[in-house]
Design goal:
Elements: H1 3-10, E1 18-23, H2 38-41, H3 45-53, E2 55-60, H4 70-77, H5 89-96, E3 106-115, E4 121-123, H6 131-141, E5 144-146, E6 149-157, E7 160-166, H7 197-213, E8 222-229, H8 237-241, E9 245-248, H9 252-260, E10 264-265, H10 272-281, E11 288-293, H11 295-301, H12 305-325, E12 329-333, E13 350-356, H13 369-373, E14 378-381, H14 385-392
Parallel strand pairs: 1-11, 1-12, 2-14, 9-10, 9-11
Antiparallel strand pairs: 2-13, 3-4, 3-7, 3-8, 5-6, 6-7, 12-13
Helix pairs in contact: 5-9, 10-12, 11-12
Length: 401
């Protein structure tokens, strides 16, 4: 019996509510001048108060030394082994903007980017162009026909877009064009298996034509594609855990991921305050809430240590409104680490804080990487967070005789 089947066999309804708060890219590394991470630098009196009442630890999203993508990290948080269940970034983005992927469609997540005269990438995000500019550029590229394959291009947010390849006999087994670094040229899309050769050829031709179409569109004069994928099929989290789950997220990818695992995605605004207001407004309608905070990750990827500190502090200031609701279980964590010093995702384990009336409080008196290192949850796989939350909400029955 695998872990999901075990949860399904033991799950039972209860009136208790679980709130899973995910600060994207939460984990960090010590600043060389202070020796403190972003989380340790931030003033977080509310999180520290919860730490004294709860139990903490460090979670591995995939396994030690493996740097997780956002999809893999969130799957682990929801209890799905990311080594068993994989979701391509393209499919996530497409579902996140309510794009209907048809059977046979292959979606890729795109970045508008900046390239110099030699074709080398100088900015993978084109200065984070406006949503309006993204819409304009997508219209410029949408509907291109390449080898009887139609390429549908839709805006997501800022520099992000999706490219959906619709045609006969397409296979998603291709590499990304995004080199994930600056100072180099985009990579050619190559087939990882013979049946994917057609998609690789179409993708490379689309990229070449797009580059010509974008030539005068500085700073967004290039594009990068990654995460070619069809729509996946995943077990329904509500049926597995006998839950009524809801998701609150601003960015489309995370809304898409929540929808793929069976959560109802709630309408919300574009700010942290909007997300917490939505949670309060819909609190009586569900028994499991996933609330996602993106801006900590964006700051880390931009290498902006102080901005990431401010995002964490703003999150802490918003917590009292949730604490007044007194959910039976609260979990605060991240989907991966994004140290500002690295300007990207990293393999470092992620701080976890669990609060409930049934937990055994440890000696931690603050929420930080250092405190979590000695916390009562220890160093453990992130896939265990969901069973722990359900157990503390009295939503799991006894196993065995």
């Amino acid at each position: 019996m695998d872990s999901l089947e075990l949860i399904k066999s033991l799950s039972q309804p209860s009136p208790a509510k679980i709130v899973l708060l995910v600060l994207d890219g939460l984990g960090g590394l010590p600043h060389p001048e202070t020796g403190k991470t972003e989380l340790e630098t931030a003033l977080t009196p509310n999180l520290d108060c919860l730490a004294t009442e709860g139990v903490s630890g460090l979670a591995e999203m995939v396994s030690p030394g493996i740097t997780p993508g956002s999809g893999a990290g969130h799957l682990a948080l929801f209890g799905y082994d990311p080594l068993v269940f994989t979701i391509g970034r393209g499919a996530l983005e497409a579902v996140g903007i309510d794009f209907k992927l048809e059977p046979g469609d292959i979606a890729a997540r795109g970045n508008f980017a900046t390239a110099d005269q030699a074709g080398l990438i100088t900015d993978r995000r084109a200065g984070r162009i406006s949503n309006e500019k993204c819409v304009e550029l997508c219209r410029l590229l949408d509907g291109m026909m390449v080898n009887n394959v139609k390429v549908l291009v839709r805006p997501v947010r800022e520099h992000r877009f999706i490219a959906v390849f619709r045609g006969e006999g397409l296979s998603a087994g291709v590499t990304d064009s995004d080199p994930q670094q600056i100072g180099v040229a985009p990579k050619p899309v190559t087939a990882l298996k013979p049946e994917a050769a057609g998609l690789a050829e179409v993708a490379n031709e689309f990229i070449a034509r797009a580059r010509k179409a974008l030539a005068g569109q500085h700073p967004a004069n290039a594009l990068l594609l990654r995460g070619f994928s069809p729509r996946p099929e995943l077990p329904d989290i509500g049926k597995l855990g006998k839950l009524k789950p809801a998701a609150i997220a601003v960015y489309p990818m995370y809304r898409g991921l929540a929808r793929l695992v069976g959560m109802e995605v709630l309408k919300t605004g574009s700010s942290l305050e909007d997300e917490f207001a939505t949670l309060k407004e819909r609190y009586n309608d569900y028994d499991f809430f996933f609330l996602h905070v993106k801006w900590s990750d964006s700051a880390g990827e931009d290498g902006d240590f102080e901005r990431k500190v401010r995002v964490i502090e703003d999150f802490d200031k918003a917590l009292p409104g949730l604490m007044e609701l007194a959910p039976e279980v609260m979990v605060v964590t991240g989907d991966h680490s994004t140290p500002a010093l690295l300007k990207g995702h990293s393999w470092h384990p992620v701080p976890v804080l669990l609060c409930s009336r049934w937990c055994r409080p440890d000696s931690a008196n603050q929420f930080s990487e250092t405190a979590c290192l000695g916390g009562g949850l220890g160093h453990f796989p992130a896939t265990q967070i969901m069973p722990l939350a359900m157990a503390h909400a009295l939503k799991l029955s006894k196993f065995g005789a």
